[in-house]
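User: Hey, quick favor. My workstation is busy. Could you predict this chain's structure for me?
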Amino acid sequence: MLDQNKDARRALQESGTKYSEDISKELTIDLDFWKIYEYNVDSTSSLHNNFGAMFGALGNGVIVIDEALTLEKYIACYAGIHFHKLQRCFSAITNQIPDNSDIEIIDYGCGQALATTLFYNYIIQNKLNYNIKTIALIEPSELALMRGILHLNHFIDHKAQITEIKPVKKLMNDIIDSDLKTEDANIKIHLFSNILDISTVDLTELATKIQNTQKGLNYFICTGTYNHLVLARMEQFRGFFDNMPIACNSYRMEGLAYDIKIQRWRKDFGIKMYIRVFYCNFE
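Assistant: No problem, here it is.
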């Protein structure tokens, strides 16, 4: 099947850099999110001795990143956490979504599109056949968007589907209804990976925009840091919708990840987070 959107997607991605060339080689050999993670850990290894400065440069993971090395630092510091928490979320929703469903994804405050890339990684690894029609990536950093689309294109190409990427280069409070436009008949997956943590995001306005624009079956994956204020915001956001919760609430887990503080990979890396997963049928 001819992918009519492939050239358009390629035009959106980072290109002509050492990073883009290296990561493309890695993913051509082995299409696995872990290759992206390992590359970024290795590329920042000379900085790990001063892990305080690394984490400090990331502003607890919520700043708008507009510098290439800081993008690499982010993945080195946080990709393991994202991987494990989202694996659990994706397992919960894919148990309910039938094969061959037509799907649209909206990734809010997506950064380097880690959540969407991890969704692709999950469905490919688990041999799930979803038809992903469009992906809206909402993110104010053009650099992060371009790098995220670079990663994502490899996974989309592997699925050999006609998939459109819609970059929305905006802060969360600046999005408008047309940025969230979807087809009523498609299943929608809304990804909120640590974006509801940000206190300046207007949850009431965001929920209103979603309610104004979405019809049919919509799944929501919300993850946030282990903080009671974050949990309160997540519950507040969920409370705007007439929703059905999906049981995958997790607070603590352990998994394989790179621990910058001790500069080695650990199978028992401790991960703490809040998760809320639910779905809505909008009329």
